[in-house]
Specification:
The protein contains 17 helices and 14 strands. By secondary structure, the protein is an alpha/beta fold. The protein has three domains: 145 residues, Nitrogenase molybdenum iron protein domain (Rossmann fold, 3-Layer(aba) Sandwich), CATH 3.40.50.1980; 191 residues, Rossmann fold (3-Layer(aba) Sandwich), CATH 3.40.50.1980; 36 residues, no CATH class. Helix 14 links the parallel strand 12 and strand 13.
Length: 428
């Protein structure tokens, strides 16, 4: 991890850059995949699975028998943990249900809004060396709470052409309708365009690598919505002398082990905390099974020290972290001034991994600075709002002249006529 002491604001742009490839550099390959899937359907999906994942699969559909066998193999202790996490996640997302909004904007003019579920949703679950079954919980649970009619799940197969037992168990527990052994760009293309087996969905959810992120963005050109551009994971820890270096190091490494393109940053006003954290990171790193992956991420990560607390706050807001841990003596005052973050974890005893798994909040969050424009996945992500209105005769008599005046000013005579003809009838 590279260290910076009181970096000048002119350096901040460079310091907030993520190590992600540009959309333009990846788009040609992603378009090639989409075009092939559009023309060749499922065969193209299988071909790319062989090319990219080095796995030959005859049938990409996960059968009921495969699910039953997987469920039996998952240890009971893990099943209990997953069910406990499911309860908390469901409780938090059920609390987000809102009642329809109804208002009479003026006498005789009633307007209301209610939310309806998106019918078909596709869930992308990262797999490979670390199958993220927790993401199944984070996406399938709110989809079910929202009332989505069809939930489709795609996840990359392992070297044997299978999905992890725990992914199948969790998907089955959460009521996923269909599961496919497909990952990467070809999975996003399959859910976007539809194949012989994979249904075309209305919206795609889930994190992924840079190629998956670009594929999701391309999907929007095919009338398919996405949750957000969620790419490589990132974490920022903000700490003063009240922070615990051992805890901070464990949090930094918890995200660094996600992948070599992950980024973790420690921002502090105490150089001793920085030094102590360096030591703890080195100590804990040696004990990790995913040491190599974490080390590559650390090579792209930073420790930044500020003497000025206002500059520290400004830098935190400038970066806009996916995950932000705050371990400060004045934590409440500081957190209330945060404008840009995906999810905030407050205090020494609130590890980021709690949000990743079981506290109840959703871990599917915007990365790469997109926290300025996007929220993390929540119940509303699976809903669409429809507005309604009803106007009585008296209401139109009163409101009609307003509409006529505005339509006339815009030069839209047919708009005016739609009111004028009605008013003429009412007054005759």
């Amino acid at each position: 991890m590279e260290r910076f002491i009181n970096p000048d604001r002119n350096q901040w742009q460079a310091l907030t850059q993520r190590a992600s490839a540009s959309y333009a550099s990846l788009e040609p390959l992603v378009k090639t995949v989409f075009n092939a899937v559009e023309k060749e359907g499922e065969q193209a999906v299988k071909n790319y699975t062989l090319e990219f994942d080095k796995v030959e699969i005859q049938n990409i559909v996960v059968s009921k028998q495969e699910i039953v066998q997987a469920v039996d193999r998952v240890p009971n202790e893990l099943k209990v943990a997953i069910k406990r996490a499911k309860e908390n996640i469901m409780r938090f997302h059920e609390a987000q249900i809102t009642a329809p909004v109804e208002v009479e904007t003026q006498p005789g003019v009633s307007c209301w809004q209610k939310k309806l579920p998106i019918e078909k949703v596709g869930l992308y679950i990262p797999g490979g060396s670390a199958p993220l079954f927790s993401t199944v919980l984070m996406l399938a649970i709110p989809a079910k709470v929202a009332g989505c009619q069809e939930i489709v799940l795609c996840s990359p197969p392992d070297s044997n052409g299978l999905l992890a037992d725990v992914i199948l168990y969790t998907a089955n527990l959460c009521g996923v309708d269909s599961i496919f052994k497909v990952g990467g760009m070809q999975a996003i293309a399959g859910m976007t365009l539809g194949t012989e087996s994979i249904p075309k969905v209305d919206k795609i959810f889930g994190p992924g690598n840079q190629f998956v992120t670009v594929a999701k963005q391309l999907a929007t050109q095919y009338q398919v919505s996405i949750d957000m551009p969620a790419g490589p994971s990132e974490l920022m820890v903000v700490a003063d002398k009240t922070g615990n270096p051992d805890f901070i190091a464990s949090d930094l490494l918890s995200q660094a082990e996600h992948g070599p393109d992950s980024q973790v940053i420690l921002v502090t006003n105490d150089i001793e905390i920085a030094d102590a954290t360096f030591e703890k990171v080195a100590e804990q790193l040696e004990k990790l099974e995913r040491k190599s992956t974490a080390q590559k991420a650390l090579n792209n990560s930073k420790v930044i020290c500020f003497d000025n607390d206002q500059e520290l706050l400004d830098f935190v807001n400038r970066y806009g972290a996916e995950h932000l841990i705050v371990c400060l003596d004045n934590e409440t005052e500081f957190v209330n001034q945060i404008k840009h973050a995906g999810s905030i974890f407050i205090g020494n005893y609130t590890p980021e991994s709690a949000g990743d798994y079981a506290s109840g909040t959703n871990h599917t969050l915007p990365t790469n600075g997109y926290v300025r424009q996007y929220s993390g996945v929540n119940l509303d992500s699976f809903l669409k709002a429809i507005t309604y209105q009803k106007i009585t005769a008296d209401g139109l008599i009163d409101l009609g002249p307003v509409i006529e005046a505005m339509a006339t000013a815009e030069g839209l005579q047919a708009h005016k006529n739609a009111v004028s003809i009605r008013l003429k009838t009412l007054k005759s």
